[in-house]
Design a protein that fits this description.
This protein is α/β, with parallel strands linked by helices. It contains 10 helices and 17 strands. Helix 5 runs parallel beside helix 6 and helix 9 crosses helix 10. The longest helix is centred in the middle third of the chain and has 19 residues. The mean pLDDT is about 95. The structure holds 4-nitrophenyl 6-deoxy-alpha-L-galactopyranoside.
C-alpha cells in the first residue's frame, strides 16, 4: 500500500484538534453524577440510554460558536491544520447529514452547519481543514460498535452500509478538499472493512490523508497513543494527539491544565523526533473555549511567531548521546536549533560532528559567540555564550548554521 503524506502535513507539524458534540453540554456531569473518564465518553461510562441522550440535541444551541474565531486561534498559535469531530462515538453528526437526521442542523435548535462554517474560515486563513469521524463506535446506532464486548447480536455490516459509509461519502463530497480524514478506535473492524473505508476515501479524494487509527496499519502515518511521545526518533511519519488538560470533550471539573511550558516542551520534543503535534481544545456546549486553553495557545503562538523556523519543515534529529535535561535539538538543511528551556549563561555541548559557521538567537537574530574546541580528551566541543533571556521567552532558541546538510553527533568513546 502506498502511503501518502502531504507536504503541508509533514512540514506543518502543528494542528488543532477540536472535540465538540452533545457531550460538551453535559461538561462531565449527568444527573448529578460526575464522569471519571474523558468527558466525551460520558454516554458510555454512565450508561445513558440512547433515547435519553438524544434529548440533549434539543438543548444544543451554542450561541457563542464562531468558526472564524476558532480557526484564527489556530492560525495565531502557529498551527497549520484543524481536525474537527464530525461525529464522535456518541453518533451525533455535527454537520448537515442527509443520511441521519440525528445531526445538529435538523435535530437541534442550532440549525447551523459547523463544518460548512469551518470550511469558509479555513479558506480565509489558509488553514487545512481535516475531519475526525468515529467509524466503528457509534453508541446511538443499535448496530454500531460499543466497546467490543457482548455485541454478538449486532449487525455491524448494516451500520456500515446505512450510516458509516454514506456519512463518510457525504463528508468527502460536500465540504471541498480535506487534508486528512481522522478515523479512530477501529475496535473489531476487519482488515477487509478497514481496507474498504480506505478505498472509498481515496477514490473520493486521492490526496486526503488517513490517520493511523483506521486500523490494520492502513493509515498514511502512525498515530501514537493519546499523549504518548516516542522516546526515540521514529523512522516514519507520526502524529501525537494530545490534550491540554485530561479530557478531549469539555469537562467543567477538569482543572488538570498543563502549563504553556509543558506544552511547548512537548511540541519541541515531538518535532525533534520527527512527528506532528495535534493539540486539542474542547469548546463548551455554548461554543466558548476554556480560558486556560486560550492562554496556552496564545503563549505557544508568541513562540511560534518568532521561532517558527525551528519547527516548520524540520527533519528528525539523530539521538544525541548525552542526557541534556535543559533542552532539545531540532534541525533542517544546514541548521541546528538548540532549544533552551532553562536559565543558563553558557550552553556547552560535546560531540557535535559538524563545523559551526555562525550562531544567533532565533527570535531576534542577536549574534552570539560560539567557541569550537577540541577538549583535552580529544572530543569536539562547542561553547556558546547565552544572552539574558528575553521577557516571556520560555524556550530560547539558538540557531547554529553548520557546514554540511544534516547534523550528526559523534558517539561517546572509550
Ligand atoms: C480515542 C477516543 O475514544 C477519545 O474519545 C478521543 O477522541 C481520542 C482522541 O481518541 O481514544 C483513544 C484512542 C486510542 C488510544 C487512546 C485513546 N491509544 O491508542 O492509546
Amino acid at each position: 500500500m502506498e502511503k501518502n503524506v502531504g507536504k503541508w502535513w509533514s512540514e506543518g507539524k502543528f494542528g488543532l484538534f477540536i472535540h465538540w458534540g452533545l457531550y460538551s453540554l453535559l461538561a462531565g456531569e449527568y444527573k448529578n453524577q460526575k464522569t471519571e473518564n474523558i468527558a466525551e465518553w460520558i454516554m458510555h461510562d454512565l450508561h445513558i440510554p440512547s433515547k435519553e441522550y438524544e434529548k440533549l440535541a434539543t438543548q444544543f444551541n451554542p450561541a457563542h460558536f464562531d468558526a472564524d474565531y476558532i480557526v484564527k486561534l489556530a492560525k495565531d498559535a502557529g498551527m497549520k491544520y484543524i481536525v474537527f469531530t464530525s461525529k464522535h462515538h456518541e453518533g451525533f453528526a455535527l454537520y448537515h447529514s442527509k443520511v441521519s437526521s440525528y445531526n445538529c442542523v435538523e435535530a437541534s435548535p442550532f440549525g447551523r452547519d459547523p463544518i460548512a462554517e469551518f470550511r469558509q474560515a479555513c479558506d480565509k486563513y489558509g488553514i487545512v481543514l481535516c475531519l475526525y469521524y468515529s467509524q466503528a463506535q457509534d453508541w446511538d446506532d443499535p448496530d454500531g460498535c460499543e466497546d467490543g464486548i457482548g455485541e454478538e447480536g449486532k449487525n455491524f455490516r448494516s451500520y456500515l452500509d446505512a450510516k458509516c459509509i454514506p456519512q463518510i461519502k457525504e463528508l468527502l463530497t460536500n465540504y471541498g478538499d480535506l487534508g486528512l480524514f481522522w478515523l479512530d478506535t477501529p475496535m473489531y473492524m476487519t482488515l477487509q472493512e478497514s481496507t474498504e473505508l480506505r478505498t472509498i476515501i481515496k477514490e473520493l479524494q486521492p490526496h486526503c490523508m488517513i490517520s493511523g487509527r483506521i486500523g490494520h496499519s492502513l493509515g498514511d502515518y502512525m498515530t501514537t497513543g493519546d499523549n504518548f511521545i516516542p522516546l526515540l526518533p521514529y523512522p516514519g511519519a507520526f502524529e501525537v494527539p494530545a490534550t491540554i488538560n485530561s479530557t478531549w470533550g469539555y469537562n467543567k471539573y477538569d482543572e488538570n491544565w498543563k502549563s504553556p511550558e509543558k506544552i511547548l516542551r512537548s511540541l519541541v520534543k515531538i518535532v525533534s523526533r520527527g512527528g506532528n503535534y495535534l493539540l486539542n481544545i474542547g469548546p463548551t456546549g455554548d461554543g466558548d473555549i476554556p480560558p486556560e486553553s486560550l492562554q496556552v495557545l496564545s503563549e505557544v503562538g508568541d513562540f511560534m511567531a518568532l521561532n517558527g523556523d525551528s519547527i516548520y519543515g524540520t527533519k528528525p534529529i539523530p539521538v544525541y548521546p548525552y542526557d541534556i535535561d535543559w533542552g532539545y535539538f531540532t534541525g533542517k538543511s544546514g541548521k541546528l536549533y538548540i532549544h533552551i528551556f532553562e536559565e543558563m549563561e553558557i550552553a556547552y555541548l560535546l560531540n557535535i560532528a559538524n563545523k559551526p559557521l555562525k550562531a544567533y538567537r532565533l527570535s531576534d537574530k542577536l549574534p552570539l559567540s560560539l567557541k569550537e574546541r577540541t577538549t583535552c580528551e580529544g572530543d569536539s566541543s562547542w561553547l556558546i555564550k547565552l544572552p539574558p533571556r528575553r521577557e516571556k521567552e520560555i524556550d530560547q532558541v539558538i540557531c547554529i548554521e553548520i557546514e554540511g546538510d544534516t547534523v550528526s553527533f559523534e558517539p561517546i568513546r572509550d
